[in-house]
């Protein structure tokens, strides 16, 4: 069963530059997908179209409620950390007591509870990134859209969070679209990697990640993905 189906999506911010052209793709329930591709190719735009933030796309999108963590920090400066995390629950008029308990559990797990009543200005970039990540994770939506969620973190925190994310995704039975520039991260976290290799994006070059991939296979795959990002690979439109 598919949790998301996008058919023939065409989009441009203005008439001159088309970002997506007739792009179709789907995500199966439980799938963990990464999207990789050069800077400025349109990865964030794809997520904005899926969430409805960018409205003027042509084509069809079939999906349920999504949780979205944007690339830039979107914490409101006048709300404390806990109240920022609870904002989506407030907007959707969910049970706030339950949401607060959940938020506190996640803050403790990510060692940020000491900052629950501080304001965003008191936190580092990486801490704010983890707060936005918690905000995307705590609701009940099955599909998570994460736009470079770990880009501001040091490599040790990043590796810890990658492992923690994988464990929680399977516990919570979520599906995910994860944008990253880090191919190792994409291989570690995904079942399938979608590579944007041409402009405008009209298809993805797809790579399936075998469940118990060994280091030799990983290296080979990494090379092929890099080639595809640079548009050097010879492949058929799929
Ligand atoms: N609001 C906007 N108005 C006009 N053009 C935009 C807007 N947002 C993005 N663009 C342009 O659309 C293209 C795709 O941008 P997008 O942010 O989707 O790229 P990206 O693949 O996410 O890049 P990065 O890896 O650097 O985050 C870029 O050329 C960008 O300049
Ligand atoms: Mg982006």
TrEMBL record:
Q: Which UniProt keywords apply?
A: ATP-binding, Nucleotide-binding, Transport
**Domain (ABC transporter) ranges:** 4-223
Q: Which InterPro entries match?
A: AAA+_ATPase, ABC_transporter-like_ATP-bd, ABC_transporter-like_CS, ABC_transporter_ATP-bind, P-loop_NTPase
Task: Tell me if Nucleotide-binding is a UniProt keyword of this record.
Answer: yes
Q: Which Pfam families does the entry link to? A: ABC_tran
Superkingdom of the organism of origin: Bacteria
The taxonomic lineage of its organism, from the top, reads: Bacteria, Fusobacteriati, Fusobacteriota, Fusobacteriia, Fusobacteriales
Extract the GO molecular function terms from the UniProt entry.
Answer: ATP binding
Its protein name is: ATP-binding cassette domain-containing protein
Q: Which PANTHER family match?
A: ABC TRANSPORTER ATP-BINDING PROTEIN, TAURINE IMPORT ATP-BINDING PROTEIN-RELATED
């Amino acid at each position: 069963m598919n949790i998301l189906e996008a058919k023939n999506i065409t989009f441009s911010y203005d008439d001159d530059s088309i970002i997506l052209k007739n792009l179709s793709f789907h995500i199966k329930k439980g799938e963990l997908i990464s999207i990789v591709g050069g800077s400025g190719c349109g990865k964030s735009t794809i997520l904005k179209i899926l969430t409805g933030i960018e409205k003027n796309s042509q084509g069809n999108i079939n999906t349920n409620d999504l949780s979205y963590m944007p690339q830039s920090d979107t914490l409101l400066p006048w709300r404390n950390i806990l109240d920022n995390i609870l904002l989506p629950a407030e907007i959707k008029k969910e049970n706030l007591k339950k949401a607060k308990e959940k938020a506190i559990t996640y803050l403790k797990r990510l060692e940020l509870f000491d900052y629950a009543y501080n304001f965003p200005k008191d936190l580092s970039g990486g801490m704010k990134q983890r707060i936005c990540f918690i905000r995307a994770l705590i609701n009940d939506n099955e599909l998570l859209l994460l736009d470079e969620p770990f880009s501001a973190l040091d490599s040790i925190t990043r590796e810890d969070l990658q492992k923690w994310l994988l464990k929680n995704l399977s516990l919570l039975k979520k599906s995910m679209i994860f944008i990253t520039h880090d191919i190792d991260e994409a291989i570690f976290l995904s079942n399938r990697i979608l590579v944007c290799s041409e402009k405008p994006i009209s298809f993805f070059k797809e790579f399936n990640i075998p469940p118990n991939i060994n280091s030799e296979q990983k290296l080979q795959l990494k090379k092929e993905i890099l080639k595809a990002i640079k548009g050097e690979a010879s492949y058929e439109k799929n």
